[in-house]
UniProtKB/TrEMBL annotation:
Pfam families: HpcH_HpaI
Gene Ontology MF: a single term: metal ion binding
Superkingdom of source: Bacteria
Residue span, HpcH/HpaI aldolase/citrate lyase domain: 24-233
Source organism: Bordetella flabilis
Cellular component terms per the entry's GO annotation: cytoplasm
Keyword terms: Lyase, Metal-binding
Record protein name field: 4-hydroxy-2-oxovalerate aldolase
UniProt family annotation: Belongs to the HpcH/HpaI aldolase family.
InterPro entries in UniProt: Aldolase/citrate-lyase_domain, HpcH-HpaI_aldolase, Pyrv/PenolPyrv_kinase-like_dom, Pyrv_kinase-like_dom_sf
Amino acid sequence: MTDARSPLDGRLPEMLRSGKPLRGLFNGLPSPAIVEMCAYAGFDFIILDNEHGSADLGQTEHMLRAARASGIAPIVRCFEHDLPRILDMGASGVQIPMVESAEQARRLAGMTRYPPLGRRGSAFSTRAAGYGAFGGAAHTQRSNDGIVFVAMIETPGGIDVASEIAAVDGVDAVFIGPNDLAHAMGHGSDWNAAPVQRAIERGLKAIAAAGKCPGIIALTPQDEEKYGRFGARYFANVSTSIISKALAQVASAGMEAGLRY
Ligand code: 3PY
Ligand code: MG
């Protein structure tokens, strides 16, 4: 069997380093079909949301299969304790919420790489290793070369040390969560409040200056343009928002001509 059949899609590190803007979306719905729809729509990546979404681990593995089959790069946002199993299922990356220090980022980065780069536990019985078909040293190398770690900053304390977090070896991208940041700063969900926007600008610029890929929620082209000026290029929309908006539009005004059934 050839590497092309490996369950692991190893394109993300290069995509994040390329300097090109990437457009993806969070998806909290436990549906391989949605993953395929996002791929066919043309998104670069999908973040399977195991922080706020309802997928269990079995459903997550099926969504990873759907991503590999349809050609969209899959990242899983998950809690630290799920990280090892998510990687063994074949995710191309993990995105971990609420990173607030370089030390925490170093620990998480270490969990995503096999020795000598980190201390990920090795097994070749996993989907990531093709259940043994793609095991051995080649799997170790392919994983260390092809998996990304994305740290999420969602607090003012995290913004203050954004450049230190971004500078950690093994941190490939740093994603600012504007909603939690706004809450932590006393602005509820109003992340357009001026102090929150200033904190986002400071964070994104610090991440870019550290040479890592800055990411953020961007719901509109204007968001992408604004945050892009601060260096952001890993832009995530939200599948449920997109679907809900489309449904509400059609429910109130009917389907636009040209859409296909
Ligand atoms: C936030 O805005 O808090 C996020 O976690 C982005 O999804
Ligand atoms: Mg958040």
